[in-house]
Design a protein that fits this description.
By secondary structure, this protein is α+β, with helices and mostly antiparallel strands. It is built from one helix and six strands. A hairpin with a 4-residue loop joins strand 1 (178-184) and strand 2.
Length: 257
């Protein structure tokens, strides 16, 4: 009985030893696994911390990027405003340029018209100058003929005798008021802007006015449709006339109309 008890105890102790060995081996294995798991956990924690740092950096970069986006959007809005203003300015400049072109075209047409008028006036002035020269020559011839005639008349006049010549009456025409266009100092005549269309005829006596004051008298010697040439009347040869001085018909000598 005693041997059986010993045997049982020995079996129990052996079983316990075996179980202890097995438990120890399992415990050691579990510890190893736990250590491995802890190492993994630490590694994961490090990875998580690194990920958090990266996330924080990315969030900071995202904030900076969002700020840059906002700044870029503000700049784009400012650029859009500037572009709109530039477009408005461009439209205004184009509109002004078009108006300038229209004005330039109109000025060119006016210039061409003025050039034609100038050429026409030059042509008429040259004609008047030639006529004036011809008239001067004719006057000189008439003066010589008059002097010769006077000498011939004197032969038939008794001493103390008198000859009364018939008075010549010139009827003045109804004319429009005008202005002096040009003065020819070389030949001593003036061009006025009224002619036969305005009732002017050769021999008309016109008053020259400046600031509504009579300053001279002129006699019409050559008439065209829309202009005439005049020479100073007796007693007014030393008066300096000016372009734009007004002219109008006056009554018979010494009375203003």
């Amino acid at each position: 009985m005693k041997n059986l008890f010993i045997i049982i105890i020995s079996i129990v102790l052996f079983a316990a030893a075996v179980s202890g060995i097995i438990s120890y081996s399992q415990l050691k294995q579990e510890r190893l696994e736990l250590s491995s798991i802890e190492k993994r956990i630490e590694s994961v924690k490090k990875q998580i911390d690194q990920a958090k740092e990266k996330i924080a950096i990315l969030e900071q970069e995202n904030k900076l990027f969002q700020q840059k986006i906002a700044e870029s959007e503000n700049q784009i809005d400012a650029y859009n405003i500037q572009v709109s203003e530039l477009r408005n300015r461009k439209e205004k400049v184009i509109y002004k340029l078009q108006n300038k072109r229209i004005q330039l075209t109109s000025l060119k047409e006016e210039l061409e018209s003025l050039i034609k008028d100038r050429d026409s006036l030059k042509s008429k002035l040259n004609e008047i100058t030639r006529e004036r020269q011809y008239t001067d020559d004719e006057i000189a011839k008439l003066s010589n003929a008059k002097r010769d005639l006077e000498e011939d008349i004197k032969k038939y006049i008794k001493p103390g005798g008198e000859i009364e010549l018939e008075k010549i009456i010139v009827k003045l025409s109804e004319v429009s008021d005008g202005s002096i266009l040009e003065i020819n100092d070389k030949y001593g005549f003036a061009i006025i802007d009224v002619g036969s269309e305005n009732g002017i005829i050769v021999g008309d006596i016109l008053g020259v006015y400046r600031d509504n004051i009579l300053i001279s008298r002129v006699v019409v010697e050559k008439v065209f449709a829309d202009m005439s040439s005049t020479v100073p009347a007796a007693g007014f040869t030393n008066v300096d006339l000016m372009p734009s001085d007004k002219v109008k018909r006056i009554a018979p000598f010494g009375k203003a109309k």
